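Work Package 3 (structural annotation) set out to generate three-dimensional models for the target panel prioritized at the project kickoff. During this period the team completed the workflow that converts sequence records into discrete structure tokens, so that structures can be stored uniformly alongside our sequence database. As a representative example, we reproduce one entry of 266 residues exactly as it appears in the project archive.
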Amino acid sequence: MSDYSTLLVDRPREGVVLATLNRPERLNAISFAMFDEFLQLQAELNRDPSVRVLVITGAGRGFCAGLDLDDAARLPDMTTTEMMAGQQIWGAAVSGFRTMKAPVIAAVNGPAAGAGMGLALAADIRVASDTAKFNAAFVKVGLSGGDVGTSWALPRLIGLSRATELLLTGRFVLAEEAERIGLVSKVASGDALLDSAYALAEMIVSNSPFGMTLTKAVLKDNVDAPSLEAAVALENRNQVLATRTDDMREALAAFREKRPPVFTGS
């Protein structure tokens, strides 16, 4: 695994990678360097077939406070061309977690603001500590409420009406409300948060690698499918592909023999 200056990356469980945002003195605010390391991490993990699930969390008492204010102060002095080039990199760095091959779980251990909230939304599954809170802080610093994929992901998770309110007001959503409105799947105590994330990760790892890749892909595509017919056509293609694998044969054999399957990714 490569060395990172803003992330701690390790493998706490078989098939599971944990990436911890590691700027606790800044509530893990995202620097320009961290955006670059997001892209580096995604590329590295996408090349590694042993990576089945990525869990993202934050060091210390915060998940991610959004864009680092020191870097944010540089934005008004950038030319339009420089700003657009940067914005495209930063948006891709966060949304890239959604397009990774492996499922991504955000273990939100504290405040997730602005781009930090966008990072949580880019995960496939979100679990939160009871101290977590979310806000689309962009409007509080004179920016649009849509950034790093937030305006795409949030309405799909909680509905357009609630998303509109949160993006226009920038108000905080505490953990209990986040679970109630479907922003997160589960709330756990701080000490149990990573164990909750790992329990989900291990359930995913117990399934076939190709099946999980196809499942993530079909969800990503079919949430915007133009019709039921188009959605079913993609599902049909995926099922045909899955039946060509050795892992499906192994899954069926293991089910009949009442034993855990041993998947090889082939």
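The chain has two domains: 7-205, 209-257.
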